[in-house]
Amino acid sequence: MRKTFLLFVCLLLFNPFPAVAEQTFREFSGEFTPQNNGERLLAFLVSVADPESLELQMDALPGDDGAIRAVSFALHGGALGGFRIERLTL
After folding, report:
1. Virtual torsion, Cα 31, 40, 51, 27, nearest 10 deg
2. Does residue 54 contact residue 77 with C-beta atoms inside 8 Å?
3. Where are the domains of the chain?
4. Are 85 and 73 in contact (CB under 8 A)?
5. Which of 25, 27, 35, 85 has a C-alpha 20 to 30 A away from that of 61?
6. What is the CA radius of gyration of the chain?
7. Which of 7-11, 45-49, 60-64, 86-90 has the lowest mean pLDDT?
C-alpha cells in the first residue's frame, strides 16, 4: 500500500500539467500580417530594430487596452538609431 501511495505521489509531482505547460513556439520570417495584439507588438519591434532574429516572450497576450503584465525579448543583430546591436536582452 505504501509503495502504491508513493508511486501515486511521484506521478502527481512529475506529471506535466497542461495549465503550466509551455506554449507553442511560433516562428515568423519575412512579412506577416499581425492577427492579435501580441503579433502587433512583435511587428512593431521588428520595424523599429530590423533584427536578424527576435525572441518575444509574454505571459499572456496583451488585452484590448494594450496592457501587458510581463514581457521579455531578446534581439540579435539589430540596428537602433544608427547603431548596430549584436545582442540586446530586456
Report:
1. -70
2. no
3. 36-90
4. no
5. 85
6. 19
7. 7-11
Give the position of cell 519575412: 30
Whole-angstrom distance, CA of residue 62 vs CA of residue 71: 10
Query: Comparing C-alpha atoms, which of 17, 62, 71 is closest to residue 40?
Result: 62
CB atoms within 10 A of CB 28: 12
Q: Mean pLDDT of all residues in the chain?
A: 81
pLDDT digits (tens, 9 = 90+) for 52-66: 888 988 888 888 888
What are the grid coordinates assigned to 16, written together? 506535466
Set of cell numbers at residue 77: 543583430
CA distance from start to end of the chain = 51
